[in-house]
Amino acid sequence: MPPDSIVTRIEPVSERDLAVAIEMMARFFREEGFDTDPRVIADNVGAMTKDAGCWVAMATEAGTPAGIVTVSTMFMVEQGRLAEIGDLYVLPEFRGRRLGRRMVDAAIAWSRGKGCTGVYVTLTLVGESRHGLSRFYQRLQFQSTGRTIMTMDFNGH
């Protein structure tokens, strides 16, 4: 079946779907080599589903969970409200069907609905080397800003 003929739904994660969303996110982190404790993933995904400034959405194809995307917003002096696509994961068996693109489009639409002035994504070195993520996002009209993100982690990660 051609990718665009498959019925895809991208909807906010409900309480009913929370366990599936958490497992999908944990699988994503394991596959990418992140050592985040599964309990931390569960706590944070659960908190994000309750936070009006965040969006956790699951993609399903014909009712089967296929992918997950997260978005968080912040308010900045320079840009106003800005959104970040924090996580984007498509299960391997659903890749190659433009599902990632559709989830990014849904994340952008949600961000616009929240009054955001833009959306950004942070690419890790691992994500870039394994998946060529900069090419994927450039095809979706994202541009490099030349800025470097530096982090101070209070949890020792």
Features of the shown structure:
single chain, 157 residues, alpha+beta, Aminopeptidase, 5 helices
Describe the structure.
Helix 1 crosses helix 2. The chain is α+β, with helices and mostly antiparallel strands. It has five helices and five strands; from the N terminus they run E-H-H-E-E-E-H-E-H-H. The chain has a five-stranded mixed sheet with strand order 1-2-3-4-5, with helices on both faces.
Give a brief outline of the structure.
It contains five helices and five strands. By secondary structure, the protein is of the alpha+beta class. Helix 1 (18-31) crosses helix 2.
The total strand number stands at: 5
Total number of helices: 5
* Straight-line N-to-C gap: 43 Å
Overall radius of gyration: 15 Å
In CATH terms, what is the architecture? Answer: 3-Layer(aba) Sandwich
Query: Which shape, going by the Cα principal axes?
Result: globular
- Elements, N to C (H/E): EHHEEEHEHH
> Which fold name is given in CATH as the topology?
Aminopeptidase
Number of domains: 1
Average residue pLDDT:
92
- CATH class descriptor: Alpha Beta
Give the low-confidence spans: none
- Give the percentage of residues in beta strands: 25-35%
Biggest beta sheet summary: 5 strands, mixed
